[in-house]
Prior knowledge:
Layout: H1 3-46, H2 53-98, H3 102-110, H4 113-121, H5 125-138, H6 146-172
Amino acid sequence: MTSEHQTALLQEYDSCDTQVSRIDTLIWQTASVVFPITLAGFAYFGLSSSHAKEQFSVISAVAIGSITLLTTWYFLSRQWYAYQAIAFYRMREIESELGMWHYRYSLFMRHPKKERNSFIKTLNKKDEKRFQLLENQIGNFPRVGLRAAIATMTSIFILGWIGLLIREYILTF
């Protein structure tokens, strides 16, 4: 491999890494706007002691708006996550070409222990030793994925709004 080709791959790797970081920041910066708005709505309407029909109309409008905002954030974050996955895939390709290992290790550790052990058995001796050492060193790897975290947080907030609407309906009518 020529040094020009190696340099080009390293530049592409750096570009992918920058994209992954930028998207991660985008997902959580957007969440840092969406979630406080939702929490403020919960606090304001959850502490309300008046339960008139007009109040229920206002809460309904705010709840629908908040649920729409949360759902939009959820779908956008999934789209952004997909772009991250493409960048990670390309980074692993570049790592394979250049003999680098970081994201190949990360992908390996994302899988359950049983799958990792099966995968190790399919490798050549050199790579088998490398991954077995990693497996022995890390062992059980706690995995909470971005997609699962996003889905859980979005669901909790949407269920909270639905619960608040049900409560207000019962107390109003």
